[in-house]
Design goal:
4 strands; Collagenase (Catalytic Domain); four-stranded mixed β-sheet; alpha/beta; 173 residues; single chain; 42% helix
């Protein structure tokens, strides 16, 4: 298991747009999942920041339609920011690299967790790890890239004590 306490913490800026998220440990899960993914990706990575929108199917469907031309809800979306850095405060104590945005839907998360027999926490952790890897450049458009990305996800989740979500092909589309 990796010790994420020994490296620079990356920031997760959480915006909750559906009150049902308040009944989950979204803040802790997001911090742990995103930091674990970034640590396994590169333990020496300069401090980064990711915005996370915790929303519902209605909002994520609108985002999916606008940005992917798919008029249906989905579990998670992510947008890379490119190469942007900014100071954390006016005195510039620490500079963060902005990686991008993630949006996750409560409704689809609950539905998929139930369907696949997963805990909400483990499935959310997986979606956040998956999205964070997208923000640092991983894709799954080609079969070989999909295998690399899934292997990385499985490795990261294992460091968090979460079993392989692809073990029984349960999460493959």
């Amino acid at each position: 298991m990796s010790n994420i306490a020994d490296y620079p913490r990356h920031k997760v800026c959480l915006v909750v747009k559906d009150e049902r998220w308040f009944d989950t440990p979204i803040e802790d899960l997001a911090d742990r999942s995103i930091n674990s993914a970034l640590y396994e990706y590169d333990p020496k990575l300069d401090p980064c920041e990711i915005n996370l929108l915790a929303t519902n199917d209605g909002t994520i469907q609108k985002l999916n339609k606008k940005f992917r031309n798919k008029n249906q809800p989905t579990n998670v979306l992510s947008w890379q920011a490119g190469d942007m850095t900014f100071p954390d405060s006016l005195d510039g104590d620490q500079v963060f690299r902005f990686l991008g945005d993630i949006a996750v839907s409560f409704d689809t998360l609950v539905l998929e967790s139930s369907h696949f027999g997963l805990t909400l926490a483990n499935h959310l952790s997986h979606l956040l790890v998956h999205s964070t890897l997208h923000l640092v450049g991983f894709t799954h458009y080609q079969k070989q890239d999909e295998k690399i990305m899934e292997g990385m996800e499985t490795k990261i989740l294992a460091t968090m004590g979460i079993t392989d979500p692809y073990g029984d092909n349960q999460m493959r589309n």
